[in-house]
Amino acid sequence: MTNIQHKALDLLNCSQFITIVSITEDGYPRACAVAKLANRDWTVYVATGTSGNKVRQFMQNPRASISCFKIGGSVTLIGTVQLVEDRAEKAAMWQDWLFNHFPQGVDDPEYTLLKFTPHEGTFCIGEDFATEKI
Questions:
Q1: How far apart are CA 75 and CA 124, in angstroms?
Q2: Phi, psi at residue 123, to the nearest 5°?
Q3: What pTM was estimated for this model as a whole?
Q4: Quick check: 102 and 89 in contact, CB under 8 A?
Q5: CATH number at residue 50
Q6: Which one, of 123, 101, 116, 119, lies nearest residue 36 by Cα?
Q7: Which domain holds residue 46?
Q8: Alpha carbons 32 and 20: distance in angstroms, whole number
Q9: Mean pLDDT of the 41-54 span
Q10: What distances in angstroms separate CA 69 from CA 4, 51, 106, 119, 127, one per listed residue?
């Protein structure tokens, strides 16, 4: 991993909120600010409602982008999203605040876990800028 990637991963690790971009049925990008549940290295997990736009759009086109920002740095990643079906993985990402949105917990039919896997990142950290494969 390059030096800028280490710094960019630190920024991603500290980010509670990210922007995730899906592609609409009409081919337009649709950005949505969401709470990040977790990331494992560059792989990012977020929760969303099963009947919402994101699920429908990612089922039709898994291409996606996420970004996060803090003063002095930004990370933009492009890759793909998959809907996590495995209950154990969904349970591992569960956080108690999600009961506000999914009152039945992990087994709530509206609870969908999205897993974003990037293949490229653009990083602007301080004076450094790079676009690199991940």
A1: 7
A2: -125, 135
A3: 0.96
A4: no
A5: 2.30.110.10
A6: 116
A7: 3-133
A8: 5
A9: 97
A10: 15, 28, 30, 19, 15
Closest CA to 121 of 88, 90, 81, 79: 79
pLDDT digits (tens, 9 = 90+) for 93-132: 999 999 999 999 999 999 999 999 999 999 999 999 999 9
CA distances from residue 115 to 14, 29, 71, 128 in whole angstroms, order as listed: 18, 18, 26, 28
The total number of structural domains in the chain stands at: 1
The whole-number pLDDT of residue 1 equals 86
Q: Which two tokens stand for residue 107?
A: 């087994």
Query: Which pair of tokens denotes residue 130?
Result: 């790079």
CB-CB contact of 59 with 3 (8 Å): no
